[in-house]
Amino acid sequence: MIKNIHGRVIIKADIEGKNFHTFSTGLKIRIERNYNNLDKKHTQQVLGEVVSSDTIPTGAMILFHHNSIHPVNIINNHSQLSGVEIASGIQYFSFKEDECYLWKMPKEKEWNPAKNFGTCLYLFEPYIGPLLGIPPKKIKDILYIAKGGDYAGNVCNCLKSTGMPIIFVNEDGIEETIIRMRTYEGYSDREEVIAINYELTEKVLSGEVYVGVTEKDCKPLNKYYE
């Protein structure tokens, strides 16, 4: 048994797990991401299982930074891996707590923000006019805070480029995206929220402005979580 030191989390992850997709029929195929995409958010594994942490339960699923499984963080000679684990590409890593974004216990639906993080959605202004097929327009640097910190449930003006997508293959073998941001309970000079936007909050709550991850999946708030 290995134990984390203060400020770090130990996880195990299948570094090949993101290179597969499972269809609704159960058919599983391999997708070689590294050869057609240079964006590490799409290619690197970001999902693992907690082995030891001061703040997250052991056995929880965890989403972390896409650079966290760098060789510098690998733990070698920690235990005797089974043949199944070796064949699957499972490796152990130790990295800083502030590289951990979200966690949940297996089979639970809702992700919990890790310390000092939250989940959010982008805002989209739907086209209102006589033309058909015009996509909603994304509103820059303004986010709906879904969970975490002091501003959950509000639309907020944020620092430029706030809201990073976490792209992972979920328990069902299907690619999923969650938007994370840095937000705090109380004051911090690393807070990414600038101000609460009450006008846009009302428009989101009324369905006048949509929320979502992309222009293709955005919907009124009361329909987005259905």
Features:
single chain, globular, 4 helices, 226 residues, 16 strands, 10% helix, seven-stranded antiparallel sheet, mainly beta
Measured as a percent range, the helix fraction is 10-25%
Write down the secondary-structure element order: EEEHEEEHEEEEEEEEEHEH
Please give the alpha-carbon distance between the first and last residues: 41 Å
What's the tally of helices?
4
Would you spell out the secondary-structure blueprint of this structure?
Layout: E1 8-14, E2 20-22, E3 28-30, H1 40-43, E4 47-52, E5 61-64, E6 74-75, H2 83-88, E7 90-96, E8 100-104, E9 112-113, E10 117-125, E11 137-147, E12 155-158, E13 164-169, E14 175-182, E15 193-196, H3 198-206, E16 210-212, H4 221-224
Antiparallel strand pairs: 1-4, 1-7, 2-3, 4-5, 5-8, 6-7, 8-9, 10-11, 10-14, 10-16, 11-12, 12-15, 13-14
Could you characterize what this model shows?
The chain is mainly β and 226 residues long. It folds into two domains: 8-113; 117-224, no CATH class. The protein has four helices and 16 strands. It has helices spanning 40-43, 83-88, 198-206, 221-224, and strands at residues 8-14, 20-22, 28-30, 47-52, 61-64, 74-75, 90-96, 100-104, 112-113, 117-125, 137-147, 155-158, 164-169, 175-182, 193-196, 210-212. The strands form three sheets. It has a seven-stranded antiparallel sheet. Strands 10, 11, 12, 13, 14, 15 and 16 form a seven-stranded antiparallel sheet that branches. Strands 2-3 form a two-stranded antiparallel ribbon.
